Amino acid sequence: MRFTVVGAGAIGGTLGAYMVRAGEDVEFVDRAADHVAAMRQRGLTIRAFDGVFNVAVRAMSLDQLKGPLDVVILAVKAQDTVDAVRAIAPHLGKDSAVVSLQNGLCEPVIAGIVGAGRTVGAFINFNADYLEPGVIHYGGPGAFFVGEIDGTSSARVREMVGRFRRWGDVRATENIFGYLWAKLGYANMLYATALVDVPMADVVDRYRRLMVELACEVYEAAEAEGIRLEPFDNVEPYLYYPRSGQSWEKIDASLDALVSVMRRSEKQKTGVWRDLAVRKRKTEVDQHLGASAAAGASHGLAMPLTHRLIAMIHDIEDDRRVMSWTNIDELETELTRQTA
After folding, report:
1. Containing structural domain, residue 166
2. Same-domain pairing of 191 and 294
3. What angle do CA 56, 59, 63 make, to 5 degrees?
4. Which of 108, 106, 61, 65 is CA-nearest to residue 89?
5. Which of 18, 93, 184, 206 could be 167's S-S partner, Cβ–Cβ 3.0 to 4.6 Å?
């Protein structure tokens, strides 16, 4: 297999660099001219939790891409999915595959452009950040699953898993959407932590009931969609949902483990926080939380905390609100009002 990483930032850059180091045939495509130039001149540097390494890579801009492509590792921001897939579509062959290493529900969007048969789903939960042109921080491993979007098993997924294992523990699944929806619930929690400029563990630990309810709103939408949720990395959806089955003794024990992992991680704040506080750019909130809220609305679910959180993230993006504990308190007040 030949691999083309489209979006050579935190996730795509990290995975691709490990694959290159192990001898895989990988090229890197990115729209940031300075990042492409740095990779060409100095290679791609990974500052990993267990050491630093640099690999010489083939890097180019999207307009320099030439087909036919074999396996595309798509790792652009969710809001850039349509433009990126339309740009690579002319370079795909009949047997090409596009693997989404994105958060959210990008797979149906990709399939709508290049066809379901050329679309493969993936779930990633490792910590990484783009630091500067040619340099990525890899903060530590996490769950990584690959699966066909129709829920079947396939030889191509098994081969991809074998190649991706150059990075670490990667597994095949026949329920990729179970993982993607499970992470959407977790994403509600993580977006909330970005409302204040402190480590995410502090927020999750201090506002446990709010965090669980944020996840529950998404998991209720997943249930309505017929999704069987999957646990991952100390996130246990069926401890949170359904609400009628909640055991707070078990939930607290689970959250203790999750918070402990967060505190040990080299990445103390989310990529959402980095988008807002460091890179000063739009987040993926509409494609992540907005997608789950839209699915919930189609089933008559109000999801008030999710909608409020989306609005608050937009306020910070547009400089109408600053990061503060007051923001979390507003969500907590909304939850109290609902349950009163």
Report:
1. 2-174
2. yes
3. 170
4. 65
5. 18
Structure tokens at 257: 């483990």
Question: In what order do the strands lie in the sheet containing 127-132?
Answer: 51-55, 44-48, 135-140, 127-132
Same domain, 10 and 76: yes
DSSP for 173-193, please give it.
-S-HHHHHHHHHHHHHHHHHH
Tally of residues, the chain? 340
pLDDT of 78-125, one tens digit each? 999 999 999 999 999 999 999 999 999 999 999 999 999 999 999 999
- Output the pTM of the full model: 0.95
Residues 6+ apart with CB under 8 A from 187: 103, 104, 218, 288, 289
| CA 169 to chain CA mean position, Å | 17
Among 174, 206, 235, the domain boundary falls at 174
Question: How many CB atoms are located within 10 Å of the residue 132 CB?
Answer: 11
167 and 182 in a common domain:
no
Number of domains in the chain: 2
How many Cβ atoms from other residues are within 10 Å of residue 54's Cβ?
A: 15
- Looking at the DSSP bridge assignments, the partners of residue 172 are 146
pLDDT for 339: 82
DSSP H helices, 132-246, are: 155-164, 176-193, 200-206, 208-224, 237-240
Handedness of CA 299, 231, 150, 93 (dihedral sign): positive
Sign for the CA dihedral angle at 176, 179, 100, 46 comes to negative
Q: Which of 174, 197, 214 is the last residue of a domain?
A: 174
> Cα(331)–Cα(191) distance, rounded to whole angstroms?
12
Measured distance CA(284)–CA(79) in Å, rounded: 6
